[in-house]
Amino acid sequence: MQLTETDEADCIEACIEALDEATLSLAHHPPRALAEALAVHLQCLLEALQAQGQCTAEEVRHRLDELTRETLGAPCTSDRPA
Q1: Could you tell me if 65 and 77 are in contact, meaning their C-beta atoms sit under 8 angstroms apart?
Q2: How far apart (Å, rounded) are the C-alpha atoms in residues 41 and 50?
Q3: What's the CA angle centered on 75, arms 72 and 14, to 5 degrees?
């Protein structure tokens, strides 16, 4: 079943809230360790999405570029001329 844009936004918001709650339960871990663990988890999720054909390597690359730009203020490689 294909989600509408509104349904997808609602689903993402619900996931963010659930992740916020889960992250609070991990607050006793050092922030750097938590960031590394989340990065490993994200990597596994993205690999699984690709393996299931739910996204392409290019889509993953684009999202990671956006994440880098949003986090560090770095230019997004997909915005750079080839």
Answers
A1: yes
A2: 14
A3: 55
